[in-house]
Each structure stands twice: as C-alpha cells, then as structure tokens.
Design goal:
This protein is 36% helix and 17% strand. It is an alpha/beta fold.
Length: 503
C-alpha cells in the first residue's frame, strides 16, 4: 500500500515542500530511505520505529520503502520524521488515508514517541501554502506567524494517532505567549565627551552609513557601537518577517513574535568565512551577515579578523544579499545590514605614541593593511576616537539620550522616504545632483579633494550622501553647504595616512 504525506525541508533560510512517499509491501522486513537523504534523514528509520513502538503501536513486519520527493534535491535534517511515521501508519493500514486529507506534518521524533521541535519552523510552515500544518508542541505561535491555514500542535505520536483515528479531537490553540522581556538598551547619554563620534553615530543611524571607529583600547569605541541599534527605528513588517525566518532557520529563539527590533550581531574575531557569510552544511545555514539583516553587524577588533573573512563582506555590503553556491545546491540569503567596526591603530593599541607603543612602523602598517582598500572604501564614516580626558569624564553633563536622538533619526528617515529613498546611503549616484545638490562653495571643496587625489569617484558619492544626512540632521533640507561637506570629509579619515603622520 502507498501513502503520500506532505512535509517540508529547510534549505538556507527558505522552506522547500517535500512529498514523503511510503510504500509497504510483502517481502523480507526492511526499511530503506531514498531520494538523496543525508545521514540524519537515513537515521529516521530507527527513530520512527522506536517512537511507534513506544507509543503502543505495531511495527509492520514488511518491506518499507520511503521516497523523499523531489528525488534530485539533497534532504537534510530530522524534520521529516513525523511525516515518515504517519506515512508508515497509513501505508500499513493502521490509520485511514482519508484522515490525512489537507494535512502536512513537521517534526522530529524522540525514541519515547515525543514530537520535538526542529529549526526553521517559520520558513518550513511558509513553504506549505494552504495546508493545515501539524507541528511539535510549543511551535504553534511561531507557525501562526506565516501559516495560511490552521495550525495544530501535538506533543506525542499517541496523541496524533488518537486524533487521526477519530477518538480524540484536535487540542484547542494555546494562549499567545507572553511578550519576551525587553532588556533596556544601552543609552547614548552614558557616553561622555566624544562630540565628533556622537555625531558620526547619529549620522550612521539616520543615513544607514557604515561606520569605522579607530582608536586605542579604552577610548569608548565599543561603547559607541553598542548604542547604535537603540537609535534605529523598528523594522517594517516585510523586513521583520524576512529577519524572523532567518533567525528561525538558524535555530535562534524568537521573541514570541516577529523580530521587530533591529538585531545586533557581534561575532568573535576568530569567526570563519563560512560562519560569516553562511553555508557549511547540506542545509546551508545562514551566516552572521544574514542574522544581522535589518540591523547592525558589529566587528570588534577588526584588525584581528582574517583578511579573507573581511573581503567576503564586500559583495553583501554592495548588493544586500549573499549567494552561497555548492556542488549540490545554491541559495541566496538576505543580508542588508549596517556594518560598524572598531579597530586599534596597532597590535599593542598605543598607536605609535612615543614611549607607549611597542610596535615598529612596519608592524603598524602591516596591521592596518589587514583591512583591504576596497573594504575600507565602503565605510562612509571613518574617524579616530581618542581616550576622553578627565574633564570629559567628570566635568561634562550627560549628553542627549538615545530616545531624543532616535526621534531625530526617525524624522530624517521620513524626509529621505519622502524623497523616494529610505536612506541617504541608498541614493543612486546619477540622482545625487537632484537629491543632494551642492552650493558653489561646497562644490569647490570637493573639486580640491578630487584634484589632490585624496578622494576617489566612489568616495565622492559617499561624501555627498553623508553630507546630505548631516544637513538633514540639522534641518537643512535644501542645497548642501560647504559646512556639511567639510564635516563629511573630516569623518572620513584614512588610517594609513594617519599612521604615516604619526610616524
């Protein structure tokens, strides 16, 4: 007898429909899984058999063949266990096939007959279109975020068999989970002094500009970077859903609903290229750049990352996606994030200060060159952050709070959206003269920078976008004056040039 049970598998951050075909026939008892299963899929035969027997059901002493269609796509993970178990029950006659009409099944089986959660419930359910989905207990709130039809959650195989046999009904939906406790975000008011750095952080939040902070240890680089996400507005629903599916595919806990706040990801500097951009397994796990989608990717100790890992960021920064291609599959991950990095001026951190720096000139230059020129050019904002003085720490009053700055950031983004672009950093180069016109004085400043080879063509566009953001922050929405162009240039230092001057 043949049974066909709908299910889904995870590939990257997307779910792909899978038809689990189970055939039970006469012959020597055997259980085989075909259709390009990975090791976890092949091991389902032992989990399914133990789960059914632990639930008081009879295992058929027949030849059982399971085909996972489409057969040309590699199947990975244990999320097909429940569908295989249901297929065996129907094909062996223990459950009426009519009871499966319109149902799809997701979940891993425990040896005791329990139905366990699997990573990626949100994208898996999204792949099942209009079918009623049966998910593990506790996964119902996540599944309802994207389900087009009804969702049922059950904890054991025995409960499921009772429902399919008609001796019990589907359990009522549970109450919505309480909202996850929101930890207070670090406040920008905690930062004393650093007037230029505070301006750069505000400009980065308002215009979506990438930010590099260069300075010795203890200068406050990490403190500034950690306060950037609190300045960003909440995610739009489309971006929130996209980010939620990525986090679900990676197995990260969800906050009881959509990921509505911009995420902050801060990988360690020993992260590999695969950990950063994704891939690595048959299911193509999303990397840190995708987990930061809609939010901030913070790279502390930038100079300690492997150069190949840093250069792997260049394409996602430009295109907002990561394309991972392997021999058996190709996936595309969303990766529209804001890059913020902190870096010491040299390995010891003193930055060439006489009597303090233990690094030679060659060592300092070699350390700074770990960040390639093309990647460095993608940072719209690059500034040096010095250690605050005693008067800054003890004498100055607290600066503006994150709430006050966030309100100004929202206003600037609304102005940008009215011009047709969500962020100033998104303005295309050919339209800069229309969206970010320059006064004659501002144009003369940029001409001098270009003629002296201190600014490239790409750098020219980035300076104009930053100047547009700075002008909007100060409620100057017309032509950009030289004041904002000069400030944008001052927020774009060259680390190598700084090192040469220090030498």
């Amino acid at each position: 007898m043949l049974a066909i049970v709908p299910s889904a598998m995870l590939l990257g951050a997307e779910g792909r429909p899978v038809s689990v075909e189970v055939h039970v026939s006469n012959g020597l008892p055997a259980f085989s899984v075909v259709g390009l299963p990975d090791e976890a899929c092949r091991e389902s035969r032992d989990r399914v058999r133990a789960a059914l027997m632990s639930s008081g059901l009879t295992w058929p002493l027949s030849r059982i063949t399971v085909n996972l269609a489409p057969s040309g796509v590699r199947k990975s993970g244990s999320g097909l266990d429940l569908a295989i178990a249901v297929g065996v029950l129907v094909a062996s006659g223990a459950v009426d096939s009519a009871a499966l009409t319109g149902l799809a099944f997701l979940g891993e089986l425990g040896l005791d007959g329990s139905i366990r959660r699997v990573p990626g419930i949100v994208p898996l359910v999204a792949a099942l279109e209009d079918q009623v989905v049966v998910v593990p207990g506790g996964c119902e709130p996540e599944a309802r975020l994207v389900a087009r039809a009804e969702v049922h959650s059950l904890g054991t195989v025995a409960e499921l068999v009772a429902v399919l046999a008609g001796t019990a009904g589907w359990p009522p939906p549970g109450p919505p989970p309480p909202p996850a406790p929101v930890e207070p975000a670090p406040d920008l008011a905690d930062v004393r002094g650093h007037a230029m750095a505070r301006m750069a952080v505000q400009a980065a939040a308002a215009g979506g500009h990438h930010l590099l902070l260069l300075g010795p240890p203890g200068a406050g680089k990490t403190m500034l970077a950690q306060r950037l996400p609190a300045l960003l507005p909440g995610l739009e629903r489309a971006v929130a859903l996209e980010t939620t599916m990525i986090h679900s595919a990676a197995g990260l806990p969800l906050p009881g609903g959509l990921v509505s706040r911009p995420p902050l990801r801060a990988p360690h500097h020993t992260a590999s290229l695969v950990a950063m951009v994704g891939g690595g397994t048959a299911s193509m796990r999303p990397g840190e750049v995708s987990l930061a989608n809609g939010g901030v990717l913070f790279l502390d100790e930038l100079g300690e990352f492997q150069p190949a890992v840093l250069d792997g960021l260049r394409q996602p920064l430009e295109e907002g996606v990561v394309r991972v291609t392997r021999a058996r599959a190709s996936v595309q991950f969303p990766a529209r994030f804001q890059l913020v990095a902190a870096m010491n001026p040299c390995p010891c951190g003193a930055g060439g200060q006489p009597g303090a720096c233990r690094c030679g000139e060659a060592t300092r230059f070699r350390y700074l060159r770990r960040v390639s020129g093309p990647l460095l050019d993608r940072f719209d904002l690059r500034l040096e952050v010095a250690r605050p003085g005693v008067d800054d720490l003890l004498g100055l009053p607290a600066g503006e709070s994150s709430a006050a700055v966030a309100a100004r950031v929202r206003a600037v983004r609304e102005i940008s959206a009215a011009r047709g672009y969500q962020l100033s950093s998104d303005i295309p180069g050919p339209l800069l003269d229309e969206v970010a016109p320059l006064t004659s004085a501002a144009r003369a400043v940029l001409r001098r920078e270009l003629e002296s080879d201190r600014l490239s063509g790409r750098g020219l566009h980035r300076v104009r976008r930053v100047a547009r953001t700075l002008a909007d922050l100060h409620e100057c929405h017309g032509a950009i004056d030289e004041e904002w162009v000069i400030t944008a240039l001052n927020l774009r230092i060259d680390p190598l040039e700084q090192a040469r001057r220090a030498a």
